[in-house]
Amino acid sequence: MAFPVPEHLPRHAYSTREHSFNSSSAYPNAILHKISQVSWDTLNSRLSSSWVDELSNEINDAKTAIRDLVNKNLPDFERQLQSSGSIQDRVRSLSKEADHLASYLHNPQTGLLPTLTKRYGEHAALAQDAEDADILYMTVSYALRCRDELNALTALVADAKLAESVTLSYTLGKLLQDAPSPLPKSKIFSEFKHKYRVLADTAQEQLGEAYSRSVHVERVADIDQMTVTSPVPILRSSRKISLLEIFKSLAEDALIQCLKTLQKSILTRFVDPILSENSTATVEGSCLSISPHPASNPINSLSVVMGFLQQHIFTFLPPAHLAKTVAAFYQPLTNSLLEFFRKTIPDSLSALPTYLQLAKEAVEFERSLIHSGISAGPYHVIAEWIDSIQSHYEKHRRENILEAARRILSDERKLAGARVDKEESMVEISVEEGSVSSVPAHNHPIKNGSGEDLSVEDVPPDDPWDTGDDVPAHDPWDTSDDTQEHDPWDDGWDEPFTSDPAPEPTALPPEVSPTIPKSAKRLEKFSAKSRPSGGLLDAQPTLLSSAASSRLPSESVPASLTKATTPRPPPIIVPPERKIRETYLVSECAKSILQLAQDTIAERRELLHSGVFGEKSPLNPSSAASMPILVSSIPSIFDLFRALYAVSHANKMALSPALRIRLSNDCNYLSSEAEKLSKAVDDLATVTKLVESRERLDSLAERCFDDCLEEQKSEIFDILRRGEGFTALSDDSRYAVCQNAVENSMRKTTSIGQDWKVTLAQTSYLEAMGFIVEETLSFILNDILSLPDIPELDSHRLNQLCLKLEPLKEFFITSPGTESTVGAYVRSWFKFAYMAELLEASLADITYLFERGALIDFEVDELVRLIQGLFAETPLRAKTIGKISMGHPRADTTP
């Protein structure tokens, strides 16, 4: 039967070409190959017998080959055979010896290793017993020593020998700390430690109690006292202990805590009262006391305190704690001294020498502290601070000055007004009698809607914010004599500043134009907008004077103009330039701020002349004696005014136009005074800052002034816009609306004039009112000139509305008995006056006025539009328009 082929047998095919074998050949390979090629169906006994025979033959062939090979090398074979036999014998002998050696080493009874192990174990046990005996002896003897020391400590504590007990406790503590390792784990050693702690704490407690009675701080009858007693009795004992022994015996932590408590008590109970309450320190024996009686010199009292501590406390301290404890007093003591000097910096020159003398004594006091060992290194804190005492004084004064300025700025009582002088060089325009009436004027009273007369003096106010407090004849908050005059201009507007009589006025030649006052810088942008192109006072001023100065011949004047038109005056008389004196209203706040700045300069000057800070030249700005910090507060005062004034009083200023425009006065006033102050200051940096402050004040003044003008102009424009362009005046209801708009604008302007007349200087007032009136007239003129058609009734009613504004000229009467100078400040005044006349004039009247150069203020296209709106289309109108379209007549051709 078949059998499985082993896995390790090779599976490769048998090559029939192999016909020889050697010692490395696999004889069964060919048979096995054959067997593997036979299937189950072809396998039979005959085939198996052939395989057996073949295998036997192969084996016989192999044996034959072996014999042949041995016979071929027989000597070598015999030699190798003998060698292999000898090797086998020697291996058997070596194995026998190895077995004998193993028995000698590892035999349990007689072997070497078991015997050694047993002997070593017995030796180790003996050594452990000896070690145990030594340790037991050492621990018992150590415990006995600790017990003896503990008994001795117990006896010392019981006998109140605190110093010896503390010394012994240190020794016992060291013993307990260095105990052998087995002993700390024992129960008896724990008992030793517990008893030791109890005894040590008891000793320290008694020492602390003795210290508290030796160094005793208390308050008796409002007097703080510190009493040092040495030696002091120990409680429940007849023994005494000295302060030196107490300091040496106290534990380090307890000693440090006691010294900190002592330092705190000294600072709070003695040093602080001396510096803050000016108390007096006295020493009586071993008692230091602080009495509330004022001391003449706190430094002396501090020296008494530190001397007492040096004599009664510091001398008994252990050397290990002396340096640290003494140095610990330096920083808090010097801090208290510096705080004292900061708080007591004087506010006046009279107290400064005493303060500086006290500072010198403080420096000497610090040197004595350092000499006695009370210091914190090489730095002298007090001496360094005193070296820069001038800068500290200046900073203190600067803070006080700025704080005083802040209080002034936040005080509402300082809103009261006060009049101040304003000096400037200007040309006063003198207009002869009849100069204003040379334009079309009507002397009949102006009626309002209810038939009542309206004038500048009695126009009722229309400002809804006006409560009557802002526009009185004098400021209700001002209690000075300057504001009690009936007329606020009587003290300056009509009187020259100099007492010398003015030279006789000289008349200008006819070809020279009259000099017009130069507009203020802040009004240039407003005047530029309202300045007419080619106007009467701008492009050809001589035409106005010549046309007004020559009386029109009666035979050539139209009948409609003989009653209404009067000739203009002779040439304007211009006196020489002279100094005039004006006043304007500023707040008490601005005056107080200026006074504060002046006081600062005076204080600096007084300090420089006094020489309290040294002999350095005050003329040298770089020297410390120039006091740059103190003088630098002056521009800061003005900057503080700009920053806080409007904010602090914003609510009141929002309700009062007079207060708002007075802020402009305040800024101008402070700016002009700052220029004077800069001349009294020799510090270049401060002068530069003053210049910057002046520029900012001027900018703020201009901005406030411009804002007030724009604000009032806008309010008047809002009132006039209710007239809706003055159209359809033939309707009674429309006429009533326009009439109310004109009257309300008149009231508003009157209210503004009353406020500003009290507040502003004369020139500023005239310029401001000139701007308001100019804008008002220009608004109405533009509306009238924009009308495409003006019926006869509308023309008559427009004339009446224009005449209602004639009293505005009274704002420009500078003094009683003089004529109004409205023409010098309102460029559209003559144009507006002629507009009222032209609204009811005939074409002949218009032609006559045009040919005489009286309408030079009107543009040609304006006259053309006006004629087209007033008159129906006729040949005469066309002829008149043609003549006017040719342009205004030249001055040399005017008939």
From TrEMBL:
<feature type="domain" description="ZW10 C-terminal helical">
    <location>
        <begin position="741"/>
        <end position="884"/>
    </location>
</feature>
<feature type="compositionally biased region" description="Pro residues">
    <location>
        <begin position="502"/>
        <end position="512"/>
    </location>
</feature>
<feature type="compositionally biased region" description="Low complexity">
    <location>
        <begin position="547"/>
        <end position="556"/>
    </location>
</feature>
<feature type="region of interest" description="Disordered">
    <location>
        <begin position="417"/>
        <end position="516"/>
    </location>
</feature>
<feature type="compositionally biased region" description="Low complexity">
    <location>
        <begin position="427"/>
        <end position="439"/>
    </location>
</feature>
<feature type="region of interest" description="Disordered">
    <location>
        <begin position="547"/>
        <end position="575"/>
    </location>
</feature>
<dbReference type="InterPro" id="IPR046362">
    <property type="entry name" value="Zw10/DSL1_C_sf"/>
</dbReference>
<feature type="compositionally biased region" description="Acidic residues">
    <location>
        <begin position="454"/>
        <end position="469"/>
    </location>
</feature>
<protein>
    <recommendedName>
        <fullName>ZW10 C-terminal helical domain-containing protein</fullName>
    </recommendedName>
</protein>
<dbReference type="GO" id="GO:0006888">
    <property type="term" value="P:endoplasmic reticulum to Golgi vesicle-mediated transport"/>
</dbReference>
<dbReference type="GO" id="GO:1990423">
    <property type="term" value="C:RZZ complex"/>
</dbReference>
<dbReference type="Pfam" id="PF22766">
    <property type="entry name" value="ZW10_C2"/>
</dbReference>
<dbReference type="InterPro" id="IPR055148">
    <property type="entry name" value="ZW10_C_2"/>
</dbReference>
<dbReference type="GO" id="GO:0007094">
    <property type="term" value="P:mitotic spindle assembly checkpoint signaling"/>
</dbReference>
<dbReference type="GO" id="GO:0005737">
    <property type="term" value="C:cytoplasm"/>
</dbReference>
<feature type="compositionally biased region" description="Basic and acidic residues">
    <location>
        <begin position="471"/>
        <end position="489"/>
    </location>
</feature>
